[in-house]
Amino acid sequence: MSKKPNITQSKLPLSGRIVMFFIRHVQQGMSSMGELWRSPVSSIMTMAVLGVSLSLPAALQVLVKNAENITQSWNSAAEISLFINKGRSEQSIQSLLSRIKAFREVETVSYISRDQALEEFQRLSGFGEALSYLDENPLPAVVTVTPSVKYSSPTGARELLAKLEREPEVNFGRLDIEWLERLQALLKLLEKTVLAIAALLVLAVVLVIGNTIRLAIMNRRTEIEVMKLVGATEAFIQRPFLYTGIWYGVIGGILAWLIINILVWYLDSALAELLGLYGSQLTIQSLTFAELIKLVLLASFLGWLGSYLSVRQHLRNIEPS
C-alpha cells in the first residue's frame, strides 16, 4: 500500500504560502491579546500608564493648535493707521483712497476725516467744551488699512506700511504689531517645548513597554526553552511578544485620545460659561480623526519598538540547558 504524501509548507504554491503567512500572524496576534487578558490587572495598569504618557504631549499639541487658531484671527485683524498731511484737499485724499484700494496687499480701507476725528474725540474724551475754544482742528485725517491674509504677518504688514508711507499724502503710519511678534515668539517656544516633552515621553513609553515585555519573557522562560529544543525559529518565538507590544501601544493610544476628549469637553464647558459673561463665544478644537489615527499609529510603533529591543536583548540569553 502506498504511503500518503506529506504536504509541507515548502510544497505549497506561492499563493498558499502567502495565505499561511497571514493566517499565522493573525493567530499569533490574537493569541498575544489573550495573553494580556490572562493578567488583566498588570495589563490595564500598563495601558493606563501609556495612555497618560501619550496624552500629555497630545494635550500640549491641542493647546498649540487652538492658540494658533486664535492668533490667526488676530493676525487678520491687524490694522495700519495712516495720518494724512494737513492741508491736503478732500479730492486728494479720495484719490489716495482709490490708489490704496487697488493694492493687492490690502483687504479693506476706511477713512476718518478731520471733522469726524474731532467729533469722536470730543465724545470720548469728555473735553467737548474745552475743544470748542480751539481756533482750528488740530487732528489729522486718518486712513485705516487692513492687510490681506497673505500680508497680515508682522513681516508682511511692515512691508505694506513702508509702501504706504511712500504715498505723498501720508505724513506717517503706525503699526502696533510688537505684541503680535512677542506672541508668535511664545508660540514657537511652546512648540519646541511640546517637541522636547514629547521626545521624553516617547522614550518613557518605549522603556515601559520594554520592561513589561522583559517580565513577560522571564515568566515564559521554560516555555521558550522547550520551543527552542523542538526547533522553533527566533522569529516564531519573538512574534507574540512583538504583537503584545503593538496591542499595548494601540490601546494606550486610544486611552490617550479618550483622555484628551474628556479634558477638552471639561475645559470647553468651563470656558463657555466664562466667555458667556462677556458675550463672547469660543470653542476648543480637539484632536481630529486624522490626528487620532496618527496617534494610534505612533503608539503602536512605539509598542513594537520597545518590544523589539527587549526581545532582541533577552531572548538570546535564554538557551535550553
Strand content: 5-15%
Low-pLDDT sequence parts: 1-9
Shape: elongated
Order of the strands making up the biggest sheet: 2-3-1-4
Mean pLDDT: 78
> What is the number of E strands?
4
Specify Rg, calculated over alpha carbons: 34 Å
Instruction: Tell me the structural class.
Output: alpha+beta
Number of helix segments? Answer: 10
Largest sheet composition: 4 strands, antiparallel
Helices and strands, in N-to-C order?
A: HHEHEHHEHEHHHH
Helix content: 55-70%
Distance between the termini: 43 Å
Q: What does this molecule look like?
A:
The protein is of the alpha+beta class and 321 residues long. Helix content is 69%, strand content 7%. The protein has ten helices and four strands, in the order ααβαβααβαβαααα. It has helices at 14-38, 40-76, 90-101, 114-125, 128-131, 154-165, 178-219, 221-229, 234-276, 289-314, and strands at residues 80-84, 106-112, 142-147, 170-174. The protein has a four-stranded antiparallel beta sheet with strand order 2-3-1-4. Helix 2 runs antiparallel to helix 7 and helix 2 (40-76) crosses helix 9 (234-276). It is elongated. The two termini are 43 Å apart. Mean pLDDT is 78; it is low at 1-9.
